[in-house]
Write a structure and sequence with these properties.
mainly alpha, 158 residues, 7 helices, 62% helix
Length: 158
């Protein structure tokens, strides 16, 4: 069995739109379903004449909660998108956030150690390592956001 080819950005956008429903999204965007369908056509050889705009991309991504295209776009721009944790922690949460970062780091190291026990990393092990790494990043982002909130507005966008 051959490995599946990675999907392109517009293929992921089309899947996001079709998976949620062209009609519902088109109505929300104030355009016809046919126009939206043409905008998300990933095949330029079919004479694509419509373009899917950035603001529509944002609205559709927020509505569908399908972030695969966003992650693909970030990857193509050498960036990463990380979900902002809900809520607004208070100052008393500093040690709990630091504790969570430490725990997630430990979990990540443990999974990496298990995965590399045989000297190689297969796809299934890579997925498990990625899950733990994402949890570590989310914990660090929560702490970073609280620090940025303390520095608002003068330094929040460094």
């Amino acid at each position: 069995m051959s490995p599946e080819m990675p999907k392109g950005l517009m293929e992921l956008v089309q899947e996001m739109v079709l998976g949620y429903g062209v009609e519902a999204l088109a109505e929300e965007l104030g355009k016809s379903p046919n126009t939206l369908y043409k905008e998300v056509n990933p095949n330029p050889e079919e004479g694509r004449t419509h373009k899917f705009g950035l603001l529509d991309f944002r609205r559709v991504t927020n509505r569908t909660r399908d972030y695969r295209a966003l992650h693909k776009l970030c990857l193509e721009c050498d960036h990463v998108a990380v979900a902002i944790p809900p809520g607004r922690p208070g100052n008393k949460d500093w040690f709990s956030r630091l504790s969570r970062i430490s725990k997630e780091f430990g979990d990540h190291v443990a999974v990496v150690g298990e995965a590399l026990a045989d000297g190689r990393l297969d796809r299934q092990e890579a997925r498990a390592v990625l899950v733990e790494l994402d949890e570590l990043i989310e914990a660090a982002v929560a702490d970073r956001l609280e620090l940025l909130r303390l520095l608002e507005p003068e330094e929040a966008h460094r």
